[in-house]
Write a structure and sequence with these properties.
The structure is a single chain. The chain is mainly alpha-helical and 725 residues long. It is 36% helix and 5% strand. It has 25 helices and nine strands. A three-stranded antiparallel β-sheet has the order 7-8-9. The chain has a two-stranded antiparallel ribbon with strand order 1-2. α12 packs across α13, α13 crosses α14 and α17 packs across α18. The radius of gyration is 28 Å and the shape is elongated.
Length: 725
């Protein structure tokens, strides 16, 4: 009898038969333009094995900080046969792991960085730039196993980097615990549109000769790299061209020129690059490796693939004479030799000294009696050839103490940039200094007459729309990706926020002129006054809809000063599109609904929270510039469910009148009754969002709509109140 095929047997089509369901055709295949809402629920409780009762940020406070550091120091020189340490010290390896965990951060959207432990998951665990880091993470497993729930992988990665530097002689600036792990790949991070790793840079630049044209929000020059190509632009060595890319990439990581030089030099003061073999013979990356590899990737059978035969980047060699010691050897090597282009054993472009004494060469990683040639990457040569980088490098070369201090501070910034304000830091090594990149805020007063100030604001003559819109604009800058922005600090009254088009500067100035003296009268912060005013507006609107409710309010916000505010660093927090207020600065490649989804995810909202907020904001009359798009009500200023009721009413049909403008016409008369944008109509067209819209449109859910709106509103207003957590 002819055997049935796998498909006829049901194998591969049914999960209960053990088949691979990933080969099934997805909705995205059939409908590529449909809005994917998965990023609003990617880290729900179903992926978290701890349950709601576990709070890592509380658990880590019980960690024996001295004991774990002692164990981490011991690990650095405890070379394992299965993956031996170069020169008997894992320092350079652990630093690379920590660096690559933190180095994905970009200031444009606050995503990436070390704060989630995402290096454990795809795509990062399988990026070409992260080759062999699977072994570094596995070396940490005994420590993770020992300390368990009291230390996250995210914290462990950065702790390993810090201890590595300490063990090699660098005095660190500080360290904070408190990075909770995620348990699933982050689907909200856009790493580029390329379909292959290390695709030509042209795919993400409008003009490769102008690094500023690198596609936003990206920072790396290739898919699968952390920073720039170590061999040069598109693999072609040219230190000055590489310098331009380095400058743009590090700026997008919130680093200035001095920090860039310090980090480049400090990272290459220790450790080495590995390319002593044929990179084409490496096995698949972890996500593509066979099951028996048990999460390892890049298997290497060439001469055992260990020690001096390791292949990762393809470049081969150390940068300094003593790669396990923190010293000034990098600058000495860079400036006291002439350099020429050579090929590594793996065929990569690298710079090597023309003449060098044997005693100045680093020792072989296995046999100290053998000396090997040092190298420089094209990015290293940029530190020598670019005039600005050269001046900074020479200053560091002549002042080791200044270099060490600058690097330690830059490393701290690199590894803590996405943790938010210093108030979130945990542990005995937290620096006491307030740093401007931490967005410091003066402590607020929580002991004032809230009800008295509430009454004063209520009688100020401010409209519901003005109060709600101002509070929203102040709070909507929050980014859960790096814990920046939000209403606390009232930076909406400072540069650059006070001048952002989306904040309607003239209207904002008028509202603040009434709220500021009231705040001063009650010895309250302006930040509190702004949020309280928004709450008052919501309460008044709910009352107009027939519901007497109280919006929760927690006093105690502080006010930042202009001196505490890095204007350049706050510029990326501007919302160039805000679907909640139906605002869009100009036409973009992304649709209005896609940008609204991105905004909602950064605010930490779920799909139904986004839905209820949009529906409520429309009827409150908070649209930018007072436009009527999506205002499907005759009772503007009342918190009704009219937006959803009219959107789901079959009495109207919709016709496009532009890329982002639609007219809703009465089906019988043909008269135009409403106008809308894509940020309105997506709640009727997308099947998931329509399900929520229909829920809130029901006659028996008018009260539920009000309460759900208040809950979502309060969540946004308090998103940056880390003191309430």
């Amino acid at each position: 009898m002819k055997e049935l095929s796998d498909k006829q047997n049901g194998i591969g089509g049914c999960p209960f038969h053990g088949g691979n369901t990933s080969t099934g055709t997805t909705d995205k295949h059939w409908w590529p333009n449909s809005l994917n809402l998965d990023i609003l629920s990617q880290h729900d409780t179903k992926t978290n094995p701890y349950g709601e009762g576990f709070d890592y940020r509380e658990a880590v406070k019980e960690l024996d900080f001295d004991s774990i550091k002692k164990d981490m120091h011991a690990l650095m020189t405890d070379s394992q046969d299965w993956w031996p340490a170069d020169w008997g010290h894992y320092g350079g390896f652990m630093i690379r792991m920590a660096w690559h965990a933190a180095g994905t951060y970009r200031i444009s959207d606050g995503r990436g960085g070390a704060g989630t432990g995402n290096q454990r998951f795809s795509p990062l665990n399988s990026w070409p730039d992260n080759a062999s880091l699977d072994k570094a993470r596995r070396l940490l497993w005994p420590i993770k196993k020992k300390y368990g729930n009291k230390i996250s992988w995210a914290d462990l990665f950065i702790l390993a980097g810090n201890v590595a530097y300490e063990s090699m002689g660098l005095k660190m600036y500080g360290f904070s615990y408190g990075r909770p792990d995620i348990w699933h790949p982050e689907k909200d991070i856009y790493w580029g549109s390329e379909k292959e790793f290390l695709a030509p840079s042209e795919e993400r630049y409008e003009n490769l000769d102008d690094p500023s044209t690198l596609e936003n929000p990206l920072a790396a020059v290739h898919m699968g790299l952390i920073y720039v190509n170590p061999e040069g632009v598109n693999g072609k060595p040219d230190p000055l061209k590489t310098a331009a890319q380095v400058r743009e990439t590090f700026a997008r990581m919130a680093m200035n020129d001095e920090e860039t030089v310090a980090l480049t030099a400090g990272g290459h003061t220790v450790g080495k690059a590995h390319g002593n073999g044929d990179a084409s013979k490496l096995g698949p990356e972890p996500e593509g490796a066979s099951i028996e590899e048990q999460g390892f990737g890049w298997s290497n059978s060439q001469n055992g693939g260990l020690g001096r035969h390791t292949v990762t980047s393809g470049l081969e060699g150390a940068w300094t004479s003593e790669p396990t010691k923190w010293d000034n050897g990098y600058f000495k090597m860079l400036f006291e030799h002439e350099w020429e282009l050579k090929k590594s054993p793996a065929g990569a472009n690298q710079w090597m000294p023309v003449n060098i004494k044997e005693e100045d060469m680093p020792a072989d990683v296995e046999d100290p009696s053998i000396r090997t040639m040092p190298i420089m990457t094209d990015a290293d040569m940029a530190m020598r050839e670019d005039p600005i980088y050269r001046e900074i490098s020479l200053r560091f070369k002549d002042d080791q103490e200044y270099f060490s201090e600058t690097f330690a501070r830059a490393w701290f910034k690199l590894t803590h940039r996405d943790m938010g304000p210093r108030t979130r830091y945990i542990g005995p090594e937290v620096p006491k200094e307030d740093l401007i990149w931490q967005d410091p805020i003066e402590p607020g007063n929580a002991s004032y007459d809230v009800n008295g100030m509430k009454a004063k604001i209520d009688n100020s003559g401010l409209s519901v729309a003005d109060m709600v819109a101002t509070a929203w604009d102040s709070a909507r800058t929050f980014r859960g990706s790096d814990m920046r922005g939000g209403a606390n600090g009232a930076r909406i009254r400072l540069a650059p926020q006070k001048d952002w088009e989306g904040n309607e500067p003239a209207r904002l100035s008028s509202v603040l002129a009434k709220l500021e003296p009231i705040a001063a009268e009650f010895n309250a912060s302006i930040a509190d006054a702004i949020v309280l005013a928004g709450n008052i507006g919501v309460e008044k609107a709910a009352k107009a809809a027939g519901f007497n409710v109280s919006v929760p309010f927690a006093p105690g916000r502080g006010d930042a000063t202009q001196e505490m505010t890095d204007v350049e660093a706050f510029a990326p927090l501007e919302r160039v599109a805000d679907g909640f207020r139906n605002y869009q600065k100009k036409e973009y490649a992304s649709s209005a609904e896609e940008m609204m989804l991105d905004h909602a995810q950064l605010l930490g909202l779920t799909a139904h929270e986004m839905t209820v907020l949009v529906g409520g904001m429309r009827v409150l009359g908070t649209n930018y510039g007072g436009s009527n798009h999506g205002v499907f009500t005759t009772k503007v200023g009342a918190l009704t469910n009219d937006f959803f009721a009219k959107l789901t009413d079959m009495s109207y049909k919709w016709e496009p009148k532009g890329k982002n403008l639609y007219e809703g016409k009465n089906r019988k008369t043909g008269d135009v009754v409403f106008t809308a944008t894509r940020a309105d109509l997506v709640f009727g067209s997308n099947s998931i969002l329509r399900a929520y819209a229909e829920l809130y449109a029901q006659d028996d859910n008018k009260e539920k709509f009000v309460h759900d709106f208040i809950a979502a509103w309060t969540k946004v207003m308090n998103a940056d109140r880390f003191d309430l957590a």
